[in-house]
Write a structure and sequence with these properties.
Layout (H helix, E strand, L loop, with lengths): L2 E3 L9 E6 L6 H15 L7 E5 L2 H22 L8 H8 L4 H13 L6 E3 H11 L1 H4 L6 E3 L3 H16 L4 H10 L4 H12 L12 H34 L11 H16 L15 H5 L12 H42 L2 E3 H13 L5 H9 L2 E4 L7 H11 L6 E6 L13 H10 L2 E4 L2 E2 L4 H12 L17 E2 L9 E2 L2 E2 L4
Parallel strand pairs: 1-9, 2-8, 2-9, 3-4, 3-7, 5-6, 7-8, 10-11
Antiparallel strand pairs: 12-13
Helix pairs in contact: 1-2, 2-4, 5-14, 7-9, 7-13, 9-13, 10-11, 10-13, 14-16
């Protein structure tokens, strides 16, 4: 699937189309100009063109820029402005009836405050409310913007119910994992609670962990028996061997380890390994022998290797199991508590519409939304997550009379703190047959653009996932005046 430069005058006004826009290449200008074509050439009203972005501030900025673009076109049609840019001249030159077109633009300006320019959450809320019967939604609930108070209570309840009965050693282990208690656990896993497609890796069940725990107990007992019976032989083997690298095996360090090992082996139920116990493993010893020296072998070292690995594995899986349990407990309990208090969150708006479309076997809800909004544009598409993308994929893919324009910068899809999901972007790119790029940077100076182009063109795969995220060099805009950065009166390299 090749990438082609976007021509605003010839871009088809239907189909699913991905438009990649780097910084400074005129993304908002493109949206506003495309919006104008939809008004004039597909004769859609502002109520039929869905524009979705991710913040209220962005919706207001887009509304203002679109309104300005419509006003520019109207002034051009009325002959009061001859300074229209090439894209605008190209659109207007294709019109047969300027009088009708002018009236369409006047109507659009009059209705601009009612234009379908929404945040993703506002769009979902509107669709659920307007199609309550089809979506199965009841909207007498209070909408809350943040679930944090509920989540804090749930984390504290989980902490009490799961850990308060632990003995001192197990409680200390839990406290070491999540130092500030339930708040640390919540902070670590909060981003996963609303992402139902995410799973904890490695996955483990209680029975699997119990099996490994029993094996760990056996290894502890075997190591204890070996050390208690052969420790006196092993000590000089380690402290007097001239083949060992002494920068790694300092005698002073070993002399501290031996009594710690004796204490470990005297305990009926040890809950932590001695510090530096890895010095008594075959893997550590084998990589610490001086060049040309024979390996230092003893059955205890191999046995201890197995114990250390099993100890790490069981701790990791124990942690993983707690994470799995917390995520499931939180998801289930949050649903129950919000229902009990008759509230829904903004995240529920997304999942409720997602589930409504998923369960819409006859496609009635999807058809009604498409009838209302035959054309949709998603701004900042790189910030889309799997739930959001699935909603629009369900609505617009394989719908030849409709259109979906996904506009964004794939290089920003790495910003998960904004909700972005790079693999969602990659999936969307694969699902779309038509790819375009904005190939001119209108913001930066030509030397900087040339430097960035050279930097990222110097390697074959600058963004790793070369099949899905490629570097496309951009051109510098023709500029009559350039402001050059001067330091002490002298020009400086741009990069």
């Amino acid at each position: 699937m090749s990438m082609q430069p976007l021509d605003l005058n010839t871009l088809p006004l239907d189909g699913v189309r991905l438009i990649e826009a780097s910084a400074g290449t005129g993304k908002t200008y493109t949206i506003a100009t495309l919006y104008l074509r939809l008004l004039l050439q597909r004769t859609l009203s502002v109520k039929q063109i869905l524009v979705v972005t991710f913040t209220k501030a962005a919706t207001e900025e887009l509304r203002g820029r679109i309104r300005q673009r419509i006003r520019e076109a109207l002034q051009q049609l009325q002959g009061s402005d001859q300074a229209a840019d090439p894209a605008l001249r190209g659109i207007l030159s294709q019109l047969d009836d300027h009088k009708t077109a002018a009236q369409q633009l006047k109507d659009a300006l009059t209705l601009m405050d009612e234009a379908a320019i929404f945040t993703i959450h506002s769009f979902c809320q509107r669709m659920l409310t307007e199609n309550a019967f089809e979506s199965g939604s009841l909207f007498d609930a209070e909408l809350i913007t943040d679930e944090i108070d509920y989540l804090r209570e749930i984390a504290e309840d989980f902490w009490r119910s799961h850990f308060y009965a632990f003995d001192e050693a197990d409680a200390a282990w839990v406290a070491k994992q999540w130092k500030a208690g339930p708040s640390t656990l919540l902070e670590e896993l909060r981003s996963a609670l609303n992402r139902h497609e995410l799973t904890v890796i490695p996955s483990v069940t209680e029975s699997q962990l119990e099996t490994l725990w029993n094996r760990r107990s056996q290894l502890i007992e075997q190591v204890q028996q070996r050390w208690n019976s052969e420790g006196e032989v092993l000590r000089p083997l380690l402290t007097q061997n001239k083949g060992l690298n002494r920068s790694r095996y300092r005698v002073t360090t070993l002399e501290k380890l031996f009594p710690a090992m004796a204490q470990f082996c005297a305990s009926p139920h040890p809950r932590s390994l001695p510090e530096k116990i890895e010095l008594l493993t075959a893997s550590k010893i084998n990589t610490s022998m001086k060049k040309g020296q024979p390996p230092l072998q003893h059955p205890f070292f191999e046995l201890n290797d197995e114990l250390v690995e099993m100890w790490k594995k069981t701790d990791q899986l124990r942690r993983s199991l707690i994470m799995q349990q917390f995520i499931q407990y939180s998801r289930d309990t949050l649903v129950e508590r919000k229902a009990a208090h008759n509230v829904i969150s903004t995240n529920d708006l997304l999942t409720d519409l997602y589930n409504a479309l998923k369960n819409d076997a006859e496609g009635v809800l999807a058809a009604r939304i498409r009838q209302q909004y035959p054309l949709a544009m998603i701004d900042e598409f790189q910030d889309t997550d799997p739930v959001q993308y699935t909603i629009f994929h369900t609505l617009y893919h394989q719908q030849p009379t409709c259109g979906l324009y996904m506009i964004g910068d794939p290089k920003q899809a790495i910003y998960s703190f904004r909700g972005a999901d790079i693999f969602t972007y990659m999936q969307a790119r694969r699902d779309s047959q038509h790819h375009y790029t904005l190939d001119t940077n209108w913001r930066s100076t030509p030397p900087l653009i040339a430097a960035v182009n050279q930097l990222f063109s110097s390697t074959e795969k600058p963004f790793i996932y070369n099949e899905d995220i490629q570097f496309h060099p951009v051109k510098a805009a023709p500029q009559t005046t350039q402001k050059t950065l001067l330091i002490n009166g002298k020009t400086t390299p741009p990069l």
